[in-house]
Structures are given as C-alpha cells and as structure tokens.
Amino acid sequence: MQHSIRSILNKLYELRVASYLFEQKEFLAGSKDPVVESWFYRELIDPSDLRVGAKYVQTLPHDQEKMVYLYDGRKQVQVNWENRTLFKHEIKQIPGKPVPNKVPFYTRIKGLINYTLDSDSAQIEVDESKVKVVKIDFPNQLVVAQGRKAIFVTMSKPGRKDFSNFELHLNSDGLPVYLRSESSLGLIEESISNLQVNRFDPGTLDLQSLIPSGFSEIEPEAFFFPDISNAPAPDWELADLDGKIVNLTHLTGQVIVLCFTGIRCGPCHRSVPFLKRLVDDYRDKKLSLVSIESPAGAPEELPDAASDDGIPRFIWYGHSVLLLRFAGRNLLIDPMFGPDA
Hints:
This protein is α+β, with helices and mostly antiparallel strands. The protein has helices spanning 2-14, 49-52, 105-118, 220-224, 266-270, 272-281, 302-309, 320-325, and strands spanning 17-27, 35-44, 55-60, 63-71, 75-80, 85-90, 123-128, 132-139, 143-144, 153-154, 163-170, 176-183, 186-198, 216-217, 238-239, 245-246, 255-261, 287-293, 314-317, 333-337.
C-alpha cells in the first residue's frame, strides 16, 4: 500500500508548475452549513518546499489578474483590493524548521504523504474504481497540519478520544484533485478544478512584478494590531455548546467582551487570570464574556475546559473567517463593546 502513495508523491515531485481553482469547505461543530472558501492558485513546485515553503500566487477566483497573496520564498505580500492597500512581510527562515507560512494544495498533500510514509501506525487502503481513492487512517491519533502548513504533526494526548482519516481522490493522470480530512476536530473538504500542470522548469519568475502599483503599504504594527475603535460590530450566527444558534443580539450584558480562544492554545490559557480580573472588575456593569472557540478541540472537551478555568462565560463555535470580520489578527482578547454594539 505504501507503494501506491509513494507513486503519488513521485508524480507530484515531477511537477514544476500547477495552476487550479481551489475550493475548501469546512464544517464547524453545531453547524450544518460549511464555511466555503474559493481561490485560484499558481503553485511553483520544488523538492525543498516542505521546508522553505512553496512559492505561489493566490488570486481571486473570478478575476485571476487580481493577486491577493504571494510568497516568493522569502517575502509574502497580501493585497486588499477593496481598500487598495498591501502588506509586505519578510519571513525569517530558521535552520531545521519549516517556514511559518501557509502552503497551497499540492505542497500540503506532499507533507501528508511524507508523514504517512514515516508513520508506523498509518492504515492505508486503495480503491481501484473509476475514480482512484486512497484512504489513510490514523486510529487514536490527531494528525494535523496547523493552519495550511506542509509539515504534519501528532497532537494526541492519552485519555482523549482522537482520530484522523484522510481520503484522496486522483484524476486519470494519478494526481490528487480532492482531499477529505476528518478528525476529532471536524471535517474539511478540499477540491481543485481547471487543473493545468507543467513538468518543465519555468526558469526564474519575478513574482514581485505581480504586485499592483498605486496601493498604500500598511506598516506591520497596523497590520497585526489594527485599530478598530468605534468600528461597528459585525453580527453573525454561531452555535453554542447545546447546538443552539445564537448571534450578537442574544447577549444581555451592558458590556460585551469577545475573546477568540482555543482550548489547546497555550497563550489562551495564559490569559485566564486576566479574564478573571476583568469579570470581577466589571461585575457591576453586567458584563457578558463570550469565548469564540476556534475548531481546535473536540466539542465534548469544551464543558470541562470551561469549568476548569472557573470563568462564567458563553462559549460559541467560531472560525477564522469571523476573526477576520473583526479585523483582528494575533489577538486573544479582541473587541469590547458597549450596550449599542
């Protein structure tokens, strides 16, 4: 069985350029409707990209001339066409460690296959039907690529009911076009279409030339810690621990604090003393504290985690898309609202 997935890996290593429409559906706990994300990618493939990160360009799916993100192996650039702004950031490479940069579809699948080949516990099943399907199962293990990274890791703990299984669908050329990832964290489906590949080295490509001109450049401080004072609070619909759909108008407090958390997030746990003081200080203000829980833990773990830290609060299931709607990045304690939020 390992021969089957090794042959997939070899085919991916033969590629030098791949372009495709990409769609991801992430099914959150307590929600029937997935969060859908669509982009167009041009991916430059190289044997070393599991460590240094794949060079690629990400554009709007309906307008492939509008670049929204690129990584050239050294710098990343993000573009906001609505605000006509861009942010440039040079990624520091630490010897022996992967670049902290998200990677596109094929590079991440190479990471998954490499992890599977090195694992002693992976169970592999190949279905030679009309559409070739490869299933990879990791019983009692939580195997994840944090974010969209190329390096997969095991995050399992003794006594926790973890599992991970992956399902790859291949096209007639033996290249992956669909990945289904299901684990104790939830379900993600990824698919690509309009695939075009090239097995010849394209030579030197100046990705920086794709950056639009006339855009205002954002300073790092403003990008990572934007000022959202007096900005209107976006509404949403999320599910609570009981599966009840709630939104901003359900909150009854005069002061509302939203914290974006993860029960497996170390910095989130370090914020607990501050949150306890905050709840105590605002006790006479009718504070409503809401944890927007990212899908980083199994749903059954949340009630115990909430009781352990001793903070009275609402817990709702959230997503990175919601965080971006608040213009928040790298913020654990995000907005605080008054009664007119």
